[in-house]
Amino acid sequence: MNLPNKITISRIFLIPLFMIFLLAPLPFGDFVFLGTTMPVAHFIAALIFIIASATDWLDGYYARKLNLITNFGKFLDPLADKLLITAALIALVELQLLPAWMAIVIISREFAVTGIRLVAAADGEVIAASPLGKLKTVAQIVAISALMLHNWPFQALSLPFDMLAIWIATILTIWSGVDYFQKNKHILLKSK
Fold first, then answer.
1. What is the pLDDT of residue 108?
2. In angstroms, rounded to a whole number, what is the distance separating the alpha carbons of residues 158 and 51?
3. What is the sign of the dihedral through the CA atoms of 151, 152, 153 and 157?
4. What pathway does the UniProt record associate with this protein (predicted)?
């Protein structure tokens, strides 16, 4: 088990922790800061989510720098990303901070892309993440963080940054999904 894979596994282990802070009825109460009222537990959950998201960059950095890219890491890293994002989206729907249809669109795209990657892998082909896909991931992380933070600090300015961010993330998710399938349709056509 090399360092990048350990970092990836830590991301998976952080998921239940941020879910507990986000969903469990913890006795921390609320706080008001710069015009935003939010549960203290949601603030802690957002910090854990942001740290977990940062490990995605960190494991990739060390894998490339130390030349520790493994098949296990190629499998586990995208799985950890999808688990993290999916868990956060479902929790935000439960908290009524995110419309369910947006979560469904984002999660469906992730399943579809994973499916085409599995078909490609069966043929010995590896599909690297595109710049648009990476931008989509960053947009999702920013949007989810803003929703967990109850639009702090933008609430003080009456700016609905959280909803703007999730709209951008949803649009980028659809766009990157269409782009992904257009660029890799040969894999689906070959598998008929």
1. 96
2. 27
3. positive
4. Lipid metabolism; Phospholipid metabolism; phosphatidylglycerol biosynthesis; phosphatidylglycerol from CDP-diacylglycerol: step 1/2
**Rounded to an integer, what distance in angstroms lies between the CA atom of residue 144 and that of residue 168?**
12
Q: Give 56-97 pLDDT, tens digit per residue.
A: 889 888 888 888 887 777 778 888 999 999 999 999 999 999
Ranges under pLDDT 50 in the chain:
none
Q: What is the pLDDT of residue 143?
A: 98
The domain tally of the chain equals 1
In which residue are the tokens 């989510």 written? 49
CB-facing half-sphere around the CA of 58: CA atoms within 13 A: 14
pLDDT score of 191: 52
Q: Are 120 and 184 in contact (CB under 8 A)?
A: yes
What pLDDT does 192 receive?
55
Query: Which residues are registered as beta bridge partners of 34?
Result: none
Tokens of 23: 């969903």
* pTM, two decimal places: 0.90
User: Which residue segment(s) compose the domain that 148 sits in?
Assistant: 3-190
What b-and-e string marks burial along 109-128, b requiring 16 or more CB atoms within 10 Å of the CB? bbeebeebbebbeeeeeebe
One-letter amino acid at 133 equals G
* Tokens describing residue 56: 């995605």
Place of tokens 């010995």: 124
Tell me the C-alpha distance between 113 and 162, whole Å. 26
**Distance, CA of 163 to chain centre:** 16
